From TrEMBL:
EC number: 2.1.3.11
Assembly and binders: Homotrimer.
InterPro entries named in the record: ArgF'-like, Asp/Orn_carbamoyltranf_P-bd, Asp/Orn_carbamoylTrfase, Asp/Orn_carbamoylTrfase_sf, Asp_carbamoyltransf_Asp/Orn-bd
Task of the protein: Catalyzes the transfer of the carbamoyl group from carbamoyl phosphate to the delta-amino group of N(2)-succinyl-L-ornithine to produce N(2)-succinyl-L-citrulline. Is essential for arginine biosynthesis.
Sequence ranges assigned to domain Aspartate/ornithine carbamoyltransferase Asp/Orn-binding in this UniProt record: 203-313
Transmembrane domains' residue ranges: none
Binding site for N(2)-succinyl-L-ornithine: E142, H176, K240, R280
UniProt organism field: Sphingobacterium kyonggiense
Protein name: N-succinylornithine carbamoyltransferase
Domain of life: Bacteria
Amino acid sequence: MKKFFSVADVTNLKEIVAEALSQKANPNALEELGKHKTLGLVFLNPSLRTRLSTQKAAMNLGMNVMVMNMDKDGWALETRDGVVMNGTTVEHIREAAAVMGEYCDILGLRSFPSLKDKEADYSEDLFNKFIKYCAVPVVSLESATRHPLQSLTDLITITEYKKKDKPKVVLAWAPHVKALPQAVPNSFAEWMSKAQEENLLDFTIAQPAGYELSEEFTNGATITNNLEEALQDADFVYVKNWSSFKEYGEVYPVNENWMMDNEKLKITNDAKIMHCLPVRRDLELSSEILDGPNSLVIKEASNRVWAAQVVLKRMLESLK
Ligand code: CP
């Protein structure tokens, strides 16, 4: 594996989930695989889980890890070509990525969208240039449009906790006070759509009108504006806020109550509740759910290690 950016970089979902669970069962079995190899983690935005779980996964595989908080400690990056750099940017992505590729065998990059310019964000220009110029395998730690390590984690978690062959999985929009990217729901939708194609689950998306995701990510999903209808017989509910794709980055007022709580839980098939975290308590998701027996959020965050480990394992194997 030379790149882990989207579900398209994985040929068989069942296989990668099984491989991740085998890493979980025996975390240090491959500690020789990454010996004398270096992972560089480059963050243009904050992170708790992605940073620590990817670092932990690399250490389980015997790798050395370097972390660069580019937003705080790096030079201001220029990504445009053909411009005279006489403004605030100090270093071009061409040199910055190439130099990091000289120091590291594998690189990870986190880069959030602006939420101001849909075309620029959805072109993934920075990410693509980073991949092009660093010349080593790259794992996405969340890009403008996707968060594949989170989505692989979510599929691993659903596989572990499902009680039937084909569970009903619902992605449910939730309220928030800020405009958030579509990366997590886009990514979850494209992974779940592929899992549905592979007959692993049934997938529904519930969001208020105006919050439809790009159709590029939702192929085959049942889509509704009625949360209660979506929650009927749900085995897993994946709670997440996102801003509008259509009116890019906008936050429309929503009058109905979209926060998942114990009353709504009663409509489901005693569903397990998931969230990628961080979560705003009693705004996105009720404390009663987060502190109750149906919440999977901590187990889900714990599984981030095994998603990262299987991806790094495959990348290390491709270096040989
Ligand atoms: N879910 C997730 O990616 O968490 P962090 O932003 O803390 O890494």
